Structures are given as structure tokens and as C-alpha cells.
Inverse folding.
């Protein structure tokens, strides 16, 4: 890689937070916490490799937020009490040792939870059975059950859970920022999505109303986060419905990104299978370009197949500020250093996630 004029190597600020470059580790669930949801020493060493390898920002795997319906997977880490928050300090300290920043991704699995030690059954916006099959590599099997439609009280609890988790993340665990998981088919995306949200109350209806829960969660999290950046991850595709497109097309992009900007998020993280492709068909504008158009002043993280330096630089030209890398980082925890020093990059081998997607001994 010719390191001259590579924008990806230049520093970037999200609010008060200074990042040393624009390489971010994408959030990746690795079901490697203890059964009670505590982050482990192995996780600290696993995350440290990415910081040491040159990623300026590390976004954690999705962390559950409450002791009711948020947990999605057995051995998923949580941020629901002091003990879980303290367990994360080993991770954040390891990341900070290498001058990288750490964001906690906080998530509620909603109707696609497939492992929850606190409650039986699942909840969602409406009693609609999720598409797809549970993920085997996260200990799942068969179809997802039909969720219970959430009551006002359930929704209030979920919002409170996000706020509590964010408070523990910043106040105790040592994270530098919060990413609210609004993407990929989990609870907040279930509210955003036409076919999973059939509500006729204030939380359902057109896309303006369906984005409402995300906005409430942003407001609740911002209240407790102090100066720390608070952002949100948004996608069209879902873990249980890869090809989903927003039914209102470009008009939804305008409403969603505009509403997030108005809510005062410090960053937006967009993810698509191939981030550079047109977001809608017919069309020739990517979700990166749409986010930049409709939320012009908000720092933008882009993700999805952007591990090739040319494509990453193009995404920056298209309006992204930071490039998040998932699978290629698993294969190359030192990807930024490799690219900077022209070393070969290893291909991602899906076997690393088999039979269970937990962290393997070779990864730390
Ligand atoms: C093993 C694995 C776990 C993932 N877990 C999460 C997660 O917890 N939260 C999330 O937002 N995305 C998750 N993702 C999606 C990635 O963040 C990313 O969007 C996806 O891998 C595409 O980016 P890539 O082409 O750079 O790999 C996961 C992906 C993988 C491969």
C-alpha cells in the first residue's frame, strides 16, 4: 500500500474523542463470555490483538442490556450489573494500552433471541414469527418462536435497559463511547421494519413512527453518557433476512438518517453486505452516500466488504469517515499494520467460526 495520501491513516475526531486512524474493528459476537455474561481474560487478549495491530477504534460484540428479554445468545457478554461492568475493564484497559478507543455495542435481541438465561419466551414489536433459522454457531437450532408483542411497560423497560447498560459502560467499564445496535434484525431494527412491526400505537405505522423507538433509546442513552460519543448502527439486511430493503426506498433513507441527525447522534454506522453497491434497485446510490446526503454533518462509519484498500479509500471518498472491518480482521488482527507495510493479507477462513463462533485459542 502506498501510504502517501492514504486518508484511512489520518486521525479523526468523533466529538471529543481522538482516533489515531480511520480503521475500526466491526462488532462481532463471539459467545465467549462466562455463562453469567462476564467478559473474560481470553476476550481481553483477543481484543488487544486488534488494538496492537493498528485499529484505531474497536467496537465490541453486541452486549445485552437487561435481565429480561435482551439477551440473544448463551455465553453472550452483558452490561447489566456492576460485576459484568467490572469484567469489561480488563478489555478496555488492554485496548487503551495501545492508544485505541473502545466502543461498547449495546443490543436487545428481541424476537430473534435464541438463548436467554433470565426469561423464557421472546418479545418483539408484534407477534410475527421471525424469518430464517436460528444460528447453529451461536448454539441455536430450528425456527425462531413467535414473540409476544411488547406492552408499553416492556418497551419502557427495554429503553431503561439501554440507558443502564450505557451508564455502566461509560461509568464503570471504561468504554469511550456507545454504539446502539439498531441494525441486523435485532429489536430496534424489528421496530423499524415494516413486516415485523404491525403496531397501530405510537411505535408503529409509517417509517417516521417506526424509527421512534430508536430515537427514544438515543435520547435515554445520551442522558447518561456525558461527553462520550453515542451513535447507532443501521442496516437494511438482517441476520435472518439478508436481502431486506427498506420498503419506502430512498424516502426511508431520508427520514431515518435525517431523524438520527436531528436526535443528535455523534456517529452513524451503516452496514451492508457490499457497502459500495447501490442501496436500492433500480438506483445507483450506496447507503454510505445516502447517509452522507441526509445526515451531512454526522461522522459516518461504513462497513461491509471494505477490506481491500482501494474500496476502503473509495468509501471514504463517498462520504464515510471511518471504515469498519469484520471478517478480514478475524483473519488479520493486524490488518492496518499489514496494509501500511505492504505485507500480504490472509484470506478469511470460515472454519474459525465452526462449529461454534467462540474465540479459539489461536486467536489470543
Ligand atoms: C462472527 C460474526 C459476528 C458478528 N456479530 C455482530 C454483532 O455482534 N453486532 C453487529 O452489529 N454485527 C455483527 N456482525 C456483522 C459484522 O459487524 C459485519 O457487519 C459483517 O461481518 C460484514 O463486514 P465484513 O465484510 O467486513 O466482514 C458479525 C459478523 C460476524 C462474521
Amino acid at each position: 500500500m502506498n501510504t502517501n495520501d492514504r486518508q484511512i491513516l489520518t486521525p479523526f475526531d468523533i466529538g471529543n474523542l481522538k482516533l489515531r486512524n480511520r480503521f475500526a474493528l466491526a462488532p462481532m459476537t463471539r459467545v465467549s463470555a462466562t455463562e453469567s455474561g462476564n467478559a473474560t481474560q481470553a476476550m481481553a487478549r483477543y481484543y488487544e490483538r486488534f488494538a496492537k495491530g493498528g485499529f484505531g477504534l474497536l467496537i465490541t460484540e453486541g452486549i445485552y442490556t437487561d435481565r429480561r428479554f435482551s439477551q440473544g445468545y448463551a455465553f453472550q457478554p452483558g452490561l447489566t450489573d456492576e460485576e459484568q461492568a467490572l469484567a469489561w475493564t480488563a478489555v478496555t484497559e488492554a485496548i487503551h494500552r495501545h492508544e485505541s478507543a473502545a466502543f461498547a455495542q449495546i443490543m436487545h435481541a428481541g424476537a430473534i433471541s435464541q438463548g436467554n438465561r433470565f426469561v423464557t419466551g421472546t418479545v418483539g414489536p408484534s407477534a410475527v414469527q421471525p424469518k430464517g433459522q436460528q444460528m447453529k454457531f451461536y448454539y441455536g437450532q430450528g425456527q425462531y418462536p413467535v414473540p409476544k408483542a411488547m406492552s408499553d411497560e416492556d418497551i419502557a423497560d427495554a429503553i431503561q435497559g439501554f440507558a443502564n447498560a450505557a451508564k455502566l459502560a461509560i461509568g464503570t467499564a471504561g468504554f469511550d463511547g456507545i454504539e446502539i445496535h439498531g441494525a441486523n434484525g435485532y429489536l430496534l431494527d424489528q421496530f423499524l421494519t415494516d413486516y415485523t412491526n404491525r403496531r397501530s400505537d405510537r411505535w408503529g405505522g409509517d417509517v417516521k413512527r417506526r424509527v421512534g423507538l430508536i430515537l427514544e433509546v438515543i435520547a435515554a442513552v445520551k442522558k447518561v453518557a456525558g461527553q462520550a460519543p453515542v451513535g447507532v448502527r443501521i442496516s437494511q439486511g438482517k441476520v435472518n433476512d439478508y436481502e431486506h430493503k427498506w420498503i419506502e426506498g430512498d424516502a426511508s433513507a431520508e427520514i431515518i438518517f435525517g431523524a438520527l441527525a436531528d436526535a443528535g447522534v455523534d456517529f452513524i454506522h451503516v452496514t451492508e453486505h457490499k457497502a459500495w453497491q447501490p442501496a436500492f434497485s433500480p438506483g445507483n446510490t450506496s447507503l454510505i452516500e445516502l447517509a452522507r446526503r441526509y445526515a451531512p454533518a454526522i461522522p459516518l462509519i461504513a462497513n461491509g466488504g471494505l477490506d481491500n484498500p482501494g474500496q476502503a479509500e473509495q468509501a471514504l471518498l463517498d462520504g464515510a469517515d471511518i471504515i469498519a472491518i469484520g471478517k478480514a480482521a478475524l483473519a488479520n488482527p493486524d490488518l492496518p499494520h499489514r496494509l501500511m507495510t505492504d505485507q500480504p493479507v490472509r484470506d478469511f477462513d470460515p472454519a474459525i467460526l465452526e462449529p461454534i463462533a467462540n474465540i479459539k485459542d489461536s486467536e489470543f
Remarks:
- The first helix runs from residue 41 to 52.
- The chain has one domain: 7-363.
